[in-house]
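yo

u said u wanted the structure for the complex thing, so here. seqs first:
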Amino acid sequence: MMKKTRFLLRIAAFFLLFCLLLYGADRLLVDRSAAPRTESFYAEPEDSIDVLLIGSSRIMCGVYPLLLWEKYGIAAFDCAGSAQVIAQSYFQLKDALNYQSPRLVVVDVSTVANGNVYTGVESFVHTQLDHMRSPLVRLSAIFTLVPKKDRVEYLFPIVKYHTRWSEVRAEDFDQPADICRGAVVYTGFSEKEEVLPPELIARSVAGELHDIPELYLRKTVELCRKHGAEVLFVNLPCVRDAEFQRAYNAVDALAEELGVPYINYLYEDSLGLDYEREMFDTAHLNSAGAEKLTAALGAYIRENYDIPDRRGDAAYARWHADLADFRQKYY
Amino acid sequence: MSFTTFRFLCFFAAVLAAHFALPRRARPWMLLCASLVFYAAAGLPGLLWLAGLSLAGFLAARSISRQQAAGKSGRLPLVLGVGLHLGLLFLLKYFNFFAGGLLGAGAPVLSLAVPAGLSFFVFMAVGYLTDVYRGICPAEENYGRYLGWLCFFPHILQGPIDRYADTASALFAGNVFEERRFLRGLWRILWGFFQKLVIADRLGILVAGVWAEPESFAGWRVAAAVVCYALQIYADFAGYTDIALGAAEIFGIRLAENFDTPYFSRSVPEFWRRWHMTLGAWFKDYLFFPLQRSRLFRKFGKAIKARFSKTAAKNLPAALALAAVWLFTGLWHGARLTYVAWGIYYGVLIILSMFCEPLMARLRPKKENALWDAFRTVRTFALVCLGYVLFRSATLAEAGVILSRILTAPFAAGNGFSAAGLVRTDLYILVPALLLRLAVSLCHAKGIDLREKVMARALPLRWGIALVLLFSVIIFGVYGPGYDAASFIYFEF
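structre next:
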């Protein structure tokens, strides 16, 4: 009996040491190119963010939290991710709510035409999940979003990244902190596509919402309300065909049913967007377009929600310095 | 369920925990259930074939035993049992090959999936029936026990081709747990994974790349790829065997060894006594000797003796039996002309070496000579590599291209190995890994039991070795997305 107990203790110690080393190796080898952006979110003091932005790269490149700060004193953070579908954004929000208690969550619905839970762009899903901090949210995201055959590499990212042993450099762990509060800035224009203003269909022409994005939009609203946060749906300017536009228009009915305001910026002429000069490509705004959109969104938020102006708050002193750096770097 | 999948690791951990948590009497039955689950993962139709064949084998063995108890020979149930097993093997694995060869394009095609590990468990079952007939082991009275032995998960898919008399009793003993056995088994499993994932699958990248476009490489690079294939297939199959034997060892079951540093062999017959030993032994015990001792062969020997000489009477029937053995050895690996040609190649080499032995004995130095031994080892390895050209190629034409590239354009301009997919960092891993493999083989050849040596060391070192091996595999192994999860080469056979 003693022998058996002794062995079980040794096995337990071995397993524990194995897990620790595995975790260490995992963190050492994981691709850290997106880490500064993700880590900057967790570095924010707890409950210091009033507005959370979630969704795809459209909002990530289209709304700059530091410009919201500059003009309205709004402390916002952009938790969106590339090609992130609604279901992914739901889990991103769930994770974020473990660290922040926002008063408003702005949900980008631009991927509503995608009826899946999984974007299919594997590297983007890794970017989202590999650095997610809440273990339970991460686990449930993996089991919900990722096809069964691929789950092992998300549960243990080392399965994907073990080949990076020869690429790891000390600088990977010493990257400058991301000051953009989650935003990604595109300057100029993509040379790949010519951007012309979209041919808009009538706003009343709507398609059917796919089950999965509808379900996760509902769950997102429910989650926000549970945490005492208000919700705002937005669709950002883009050049997309009628099928996509019908999907964006289909959100109108759902928003009305849920009692959530929905701004579809495709139809907001007051924005005065110059598609040829202020879009980076057909899907993303460039820095000029983002500045215009951020101002419009900020004005809407200031007018319709009770979001404090934190500019005089000493706890937010760093935001002023970061804004100055941001302005200098991008404008 | 391949050994190199996450699913297998979870399965094995669960079986291990359940096995030692259960009372001793229940353990063999738990292993039976686990083995059935393991086999069912390869496809339910295969499980049905296995159940049917094992039942037939079980009944045939009992019938042999009963007939012999009643004073009869038991030959009829033996012939029926063996015929059924080999007949099914022929039907599922070779029918289309032979029908296509004989009747051409209009031949009927049988579209039945070949159950995983069929060649291995059919050979084990035929061995069992023959052993019962010969009185080497008693017929099993309990079907569950027979099935439990036949489908024991470490050996059913790729062997070793075990003998009932050697393994069954340990399998049903419900062994108690031993830390020492656990560690020895764990080290062997991890060493198996190291060979498979760090060495074999990395070499496999280069081999597949060169074989895909041999014309784009200089002949010496193609020859190097053939040598790499020799190392790949060894690391692959020995790796599998180490995982299988290590897993069984943890449960207290010793399966038969399959390798004895084969590339140190000094002759081709010696190579075959040290490579895939259980297959060689099977052919020797169940085909070569029965053929040689058969009435027909004895008559043939007598006729030769009357017409020619005593030596011819000894050698010619043996050569004929060897020809049969090597033809079937080639075919056993698969219904493909290159396998048949590969079998014939070895048959010719071994028969020639038998006939040339008197001449070679005269040429051989009288005293031990390291240089001569080294020459013989290199020569044997070169002959084995030549055989691999046939073995690795899908068609005879492909083998011809490989050989002609080596012989006709040894230093022609062509791609570097990086074009075959092998990058410099792979070499940083391969070279030390192969040196480690060589060191382990040298220890084995000198009779040093490395695991015993480590077992005598302090506790942290014993467990530390397991951790080092584990992380070597995790970090340097070839697996994960982007890689085709290469199955074991012998899984196809």
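Residues 45-118+176-330 of chain A form a domain with the Rossmann fold fold (CATH 3.40.50.1110). The radius of gyration of chain A is 21 Å.
cya
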